[in-house]
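Hey Z.,

So I finally got round to the nicotinamide-adenine-dinucleotide thing we talked about over coffee. Here's the setup:
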Amino acid sequence: MASKCEENITLPDGRNVKTITSVVEANEKDVDIAVEAATKAFNEKWIHVNGQERGRLINKFADLLERDLDELAAIEALDNGKAYTIAKSEDLPFTITVFRYFAGWCDKIHGKVIETQGDKFCYTRHEPIGVCGAIIPWNYPLLMVAWKLGPALACGNTIVLKTSELTPLTALKVAALFKEAGFPKGVVNVLSGFGPTAGAAIASHMKIDKVAFTGSTTTGRSIMKAAADSNLKKVSLELGGKSPNIILADSDLEEAVKWAYQGIYANHGQCCCAGSRVYVEDSIYDNFVEKFKTYAQNIKVGDPFHKDTFQGPQISQRQFDRIMGYIEAGKKEGATLLLGGKRHGDKGFFVCPTIFTDVVKFYSKHIYSYELLYDFLLCNIFKNENMTIMQEEIFGPVVAIAKFKTIDEVIEKAHLTKYGLAAAVFTKDITRAIKISNALRAGTVWVNCYNVVNTNAPFGGFKESGFGRELGKYALELYTQVKTVQINL
Ligand code: NAD
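And the result:
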């Protein structure tokens, strides 16, 4: 539980900070206790609760989220640093919609009667998996709770949820609301803990039947290994991205700029599907860049509780340093820093909205070292856009803008990372929109918009952005297993 504890402390690096609260850190033993509670609740209570009743409980819980919307938005802003007005107008309503959507599915999950040869009667049942572990990141603390718990509970599973060590607060408040809504004890268990301890204990637990993870690709890999080395629990992974946003010359330029800006700067750039690589067709490139820069210059960065704030602080010192490291790499590798590239203000983890251009290395002459020769080969033969800022997920308000000449060229460039979470294309030509959307290897492609995530539609990654689809009917497949019953008549 969180406890109030306002005091000034000095960190080892000398910074003076104010603690707003402290939470108990869950360790491996706490995971065992939570798993035991979830197992008992699954076998003795939850399995006997029918779909209609599960739906009623989830809707009751959603009513409580609505009742406490203001308070939850404020906790979310404190927890994560996102703007209170955005938490209130976007994160909270989306969270509630997700729970209500899955409440609607509870009594509609059913199998089929299957025709077989002879006098056998065959049918299938879609049964819950059992105890599900959920490990979530810090960028959308409340929404990630909804994306995992909504479908898991609708399908009749019990849960052991571990929040990010950086954002434990809203989930603790939510745990109290589950209790108030009347969920049986042990159905939802929330732990605040660190990844290598509590997180790893969930991934390798012999009595957890499935683990649903959202976070970095590196951690996703270790979770899969842990699942394989323990009880082969089912795994679903929502991982990182480096999404391309393609702007064609025939697009509505004002609209393209507006969406591209949302695409990268929403949530301070801490968005798995952030459109961090913008490709603009040659003939409109200069115009686009100028307009985009004007938008970015006007972003209100600052106090999450100020009504005009669009961008609050980054989540942590580590993340701030990481972003600054990428900005330095961009400069060092020869990209042009068009805007930002530095701390906003003189304290806190605020980063100025940043734009890089000239982000593709080009060598045609002056190769005077083996290192440059290697780069040349990567760039020109393997067409690898090897600037670090074009390859790695920065997870901050930093965009790289590049030019292209032909559609085939930009599709090829779009594929030059290990990720495949999302992509976007802007054009008024529906034929080209469809051609490019079909060609892109990404779990979501937006046409003439960005970051539009719909509760009814699946969301998930291609390539190293993970597997499994959250949201929509597809999410039910992640939390059920199919049983075939054959009856000899
Ligand atoms: P992270 O991988 O460091 O941490 C995510 C969660 O995993 C945290 O709860 C953490 O405590 C836990 N964890 C860390 N090490 C672990 C281990 N060894 N075993 C088990 N659990 C462990 O990621 P993050 O920094 O919190 O989040 C940022 C990343 O998440 C970005 O790469 C981003 O793209 C990705 N992300 C993806 C989506 C998506 O839907 N695809 C959504 C949000 C964030």
